[in-house]
Amino acid sequence: MSKIERVTSVKSELLDIFMSLKVAEHEKRSRTAAQRNLRARRGIELHNEFKELERNIADLAEDEKH
């Protein structure tokens, strides 16, 4: 193998490694973002559930007064 072929081969390997690292980094960021979105969505759902529960309790208290 000539020097040029070896340099080209090393360049190609380095590019493959770099691209693999970038893909892994992107996948990690995507997973982190998905987890953050899931936590936020669940937080909103819990907030709405508590508000509904508060309304239901208030309605029961009003019904008991009458």
Secondary structure elements and pairings:
Layout: H1 3-65
In words, what does this structure look like?
- By secondary structure, the chain is an all-alpha fold.
- Helix content is 95%, strand content 0%.
- It is built from 1 helix and no strands.
- It is rod-shaped.
- InterPro entries: PA3496-like.
Describe the structure in brief:
The chain has about 70 residues and is mostly helical. The protein has one helix at about 5-65.
Task: Summarize this structure as a short list of keywords or feature phrases.
66 residues; mainly alpha; 95% helix; rod-shaped; PA3496-like
What is the tally of beta strands? 0
Calculate the terminal CA-CA distance, rounded to whole Å. 95 Å
What portion of residues belong to β-strands? under 5%
Low-confidence stretches: none
Structural class: mainly alpha
Which of globular, elongated, flat, extended, rod-shaped describes the shape?
Answer: rod-shaped
Largest sheet features: none
Give the fraction of residues assigned to helices: over 70%
What is the CA-based Rg, rounded? 28 Å
Mean pLDDT across all residues, rounded? 94
